[in-house]
Design brief:
Strand content: 15-25%
Helix content: 25-40%
CATH superfamily: Dehydroquinase, class II
Radius of gyration: 15 Å
Distance between the termini: 29 Å
Bound molecules: ligand CA2
CATH architecture: 3-Layer(aba) Sandwich
Number of strands: 5
Number of domains: 1
Shape: globular
CATH class: Alpha Beta
Length: 152
Amino acid sequence: MNKPIYVLNGPNLNRLGKREPEIYGHTTLAQIEALCRRTAGPRSIEFRQTNSETQMIDWIHDATDNASGIVINPAAYSFTSIAILDALKMFPGPIIELHISNIHRREEIYHRSLVSRTATAVIAGLGARGYAAAVQAVIELVEGDTDVPPAP
Ligand code: CA2
């Protein structure tokens, strides 16, 4: 896999580890970036965070031209942004939607993600380690190693 995996993070996730640890844990976004890079090994990771919807759309376009797969935590844009949904629909590779918390156990406003309509898979509720699972999933989907290994 020569093309990078894009790991895109939406609004307020730059504050991770600083507030509401009972929901989002104590891990900072810098630590999550390190986890993604460890998981990817020699493969290249573009790890980004923005508080701007426009910037997120531009990065998805950039990923569409350059990335092998996308891991995206759209944060609040999950529930509001048809523009981000439309941009993701143009991406030809795997898209893993990632939420640190289990959005389905939370208030109803967090239940209907628009992004899920175009995601290959959704991971929610695994905490920061969900990012490692998501990066691993992209690698397996892109490199074709998707079968469950046979029993010994
Ligand atoms: O669980 C997730 O990863 C979310 O995508 C996080 C979003 C929330 O809107 C989604 O429903 C679920 C919010 C991110 C807010 O980030 C904070 C970071 C530190 C302290 C407080 C909030």
